[in-house]
Amino acid sequence: MTCDQFDLLLDDYLEQKLDPDVASEAASHLATCAACRVRTGELRALLEAATTLPRDIQPPRNLWPGIAAQLAPRSSRTLAWTRWAPLAVAATALIAVTALLTARMTRHDTVVATGPAPATAHPVTFDADREYALATEDLERLLAERRAQMAPATVAVLERNLALIDAAIAESRTALAADPANADLRALLWGAHRQKLELLERATRLTRS
Amino acid sequence: MTDSIQRARQGDPDAFRELYEGHVGRIYALCLRLAGDAALAEELTQDTFVRAWERLSSFRGDSAFGTWLFRIAVNVALAERRGRGRREARVALAADPDLLPSAARAEHHGDRMDLEQAIAGLPPGARAVFLLYDVEGYQHNEIAELTGIAEGTSKTQLFRARRLLREALTR
Amino acid sequence: MRRHFIASLLLACAMPAALSAQAPLRRGRSIAPDAAVRIFNLAGTIRVTAWERDSIDVTAVVPEGAGEFLFGGGSAGVKLGISPPPAAETFPGSLLEVKVPARARVWVKTESAEVLVSGLTGPLDLSSVSGRIVVTGSPSELAAESMDGGIDVRVTSPLVRLKTAGGTIVLRGQVEDATISTVSGAATAVVTGLARSRMEAVSGHLTFDAELLPGGNYSLESHSGDIDIRLPTTFNGAVDLTAMEGRVVNTLTRSPVHSSNRGRGETASFGGGAAASDLVARTFKGTISIGAQTKP
Predict the structure, then answer these.
(1) Tens-place pLDDT, residues C256-286
(2) Is there a domain that residue B162 lies in?
(3) What is the tally of structural domains in chain B?
(4) How far is residue C176's CA from residue C179's CA, in Å, rounded to a whole number?
């Protein structure tokens, strides 16, 4: 067996996948060839090192807010105009009641109404809304800690734009409360939530170097 | 199927967060090495979990949740590379010490840091197969299934990866 | 090796005292064609251009009290910039002129400096607060973000991501995948060869004037900002426009605009075919206008 032939078999040799006769030929070559012994040792060391690499590494920063920002409800997006067909008042009421009941069955709802009336005045918060709120709180806390390191002009721009997003969130939320089944409204609300999270995230990275 | 998975399938983001906390380390480690770039790894990790959320209803519990998640991560990472046609890591330097897995950096063992760097320097196809075979312990047929390459290609790529690494580490 | 990267940076820090604060400083070294180059300068000007050599060349003009010029690294990566004077509320800006190989991977961070990057073909990552960012060339990908600095980009690139809160964004050129995000700043994209895009604003005005690829996906979203869409008259993709409590104006096709949301909003949808594109625009209370591109 030549060294080139051995090199081609080396991987299988180390993993004990060679036929017995080939394996013993390889072993004999190894016994007489220092260069191949070196190469075998290198490969063995490499494979051992590979198995000892840490397989669990925590990311340097919390990725959850970025993920939470993208978690849409797992129902398929329905086309806007199918919902805008004129509905009987009773049908509208039915949809509103169903929405309230569904909200009450999920974990974090804060439905106030207990009666069956189609409520437009009762705030309905969905799971995802709550999730965003938690993620946003984390970032706002972090930002508050770093505010002192930011130039005042920057803080002003940031707060002005955050206020704009908050106003948009409030408007969308009110509209969604009146029309909880509206997927487009939900998408807009979540878009605003996501933009807020991203802006906060970016702001926390603005430190003077 | 565990309680968290059941609840997450029903749309409960808190339950999904629990799953995230339990698995992000493994996913991030894989993405970091596959991408060779910390910023991209963060994106891939996030994309993996977002996609997992979208596909929860198709998780049937016939494999461990972690394995199912892993498969998504591999697909996300490889699709990303295919989609962009990129051949190298982004702005962040693969060799910049700030960007290597911090667990590796924390070790005093100089060898381990060099191995991470050497892996990051591999061509992407070889790198992926090396990571899946020699680091994560998948067999060639599983790698073929995970990545869509032929089993034969997987073996060739592994051979190539090991040779390149051996060369890089003994220079 | 790479561990000495930090050490050499510290060494560079130890030297500046001997250098004149007013006369231009020159530093350079050979670097790999795809080396990573990190540039930081809080105020002033940062200009990065490509040249034919496998080396980096920096000219720095650092006025009195502006801080220290730092330069360090190795052939695989260089970190350079102006370290601001400690505990200073304001300080004068510095000028950094950096020449790098075209394929260099460039990362720039500033607060108020103007960032001008041209001729590069590698990936770019540019971050500013109030400084204006101007990019031309063919970056393999471009990420630029600001708080309220303007972002002006004219490139050919497969991947562009531009983000601001209050700045004005203008993207022109041939771009395959574009993401533009703004809160109150206006954002305009005039592009060709687009396969995927997402534009979003809260109150900012979005303008999308694009030649699209078949089978592409495009989305535009705003809360109160108007959305202006200009497409070729030959466009036959699937279009879906929704204004919750706003208006939709369609001058591109004969499809009617319907009243929606109990009379408070409007929608229009039309088009679609086998390899059709999917263009979705949504606003809460802005106006969505879609019409034909005006040829010059």
Answers:
(1) 898 888 889 999 988 865 556 679 999 999 9
(2) no
(3) 1
(4) 10
Q: How far is C92 from chain B (nearest CA, A)?
A: 29
- Domain assignment present for B122: no
DSSP assigned state of B134? I
pLDDT digits (tens, 9 = 90+) for C125-177: 999 999 999 999 999 999 999 999 999 999 999 999 999 999 999 999 999 99
Touching A: B residues 7-66, CB under 8 Å: 11-14, 16-17, 20-21, 24-26, 28-29, 32-33, 38, 41-42, 45-46, 49-50, 53-54, 56-57
CATH of the domain at B8: 1.10.1740.10
Q: Domain for residue B161, yes or no?
A: no
Cα–Cα distance list, C269 to B166, C185, C281 (Å): 59, 28, 10
Nearest to C57 by CA among C94, C19, C104: C104
Q: Measuring CA to CA, which residue among A186, A167, A136, A207 is closest to residue C183?
A: A167
Quote the mean pLDDT of chain C. 89
- Structural domain including B80 reads 3-99
Degrees (nearest 5) of the Cα angle A141, A143, A144?
Answer: 65
Measured in degrees and rounded to the nearest 5, phi and psi for residue A195 equal -60, -40
Q: What 3-state DSSP class applies to B161?
A: helix
In degrees and rounded to multiples of 5, residue C125 shows phi and psi of -135, 105
**Is the CB of residue A56 less than 8 Å away from at least one CB of chain B?**
yes
Classify the C-alpha dihedral C288-C292-C294-C295 as positive or negative.
positive
B94 in any annotated domain = yes
Under 8 Å CB-to-CB from C24, ≥6 apart: which residues?
Answer: C59, C60, C61
Residues of A in contact with C167 (CB under 8 A): none
Integer Cα distance of C66 and C55 in angstroms: 27
SS (H, E, C) A96-155: HHHHHHHHHHCCCCCCCCCCCCCCCCCCCCCHHHHHHHHHHHHHHHHHHHHHHHCCHHHH
Phi and psi torsions of A111, nearest 5°: -65, 130
Helix H, strand E, coil C: the string for chain C is CCCHHHHHHHHHHHCHHHCCCCCCEEEEEECCCCCEEEEECCCEEEEEEEECCCEEEEEEECCCCCCEEEEEECCCEEEEEEECCCCCCCCCCEEEEEEEECCCEEEEECCCCEEEEEEECCEEEEECCCCCEEEEECCCEEEEECCCCCEEEEEEEEEEEEECCCCCEEEEEEEEEEEEECCCCCEEEEEEEEEEEEEEECCCCEEEEEEEEEEEEEEEEECCCCEEEEECCCCCCEEEEEECCCEEEECCCCCCCEEECCCCEEEEEECCCCCCCEEEEEECCCEEEEEECCCC
CB-based contact C147 A188, cutoff 8 Å = no
Partner residues linked to A18 by β-bridges:
none
- Rounded CA gap, C12 and C82, in Å? 12
Question: Could you tell me if A87 and A94 are in contact, meaning their C-beta atoms sit under 8 angstroms apart?
Answer: no
pTM as predicted: 0.58
d(CA A166, CA C164): 17
- What confidence score (pLDDT) does residue B65 get? 86
Q: How far is CA A162 from CA A136, C111, C183, in A?
A: 12, 19, 8
Q: Do C165 and A192 touch (CB under 8 A)?
A: no
User: What is the distance between the alpha carbons of residues B162 and B127, in angstroms, rounded to a whole number?
Assistant: 9
Given this model, what pLDDT does residue C118 score? 97
Question: What's the rounded Cα separation, in Å, for the pair B50 and C286?
Answer: 29
**Model ipTM value:** 0.85
Confidence of residue B70 (pLDDT cuts 50, 70, 90): confident
Instruction: Give the single-character DSSP code of A181.
Output: T
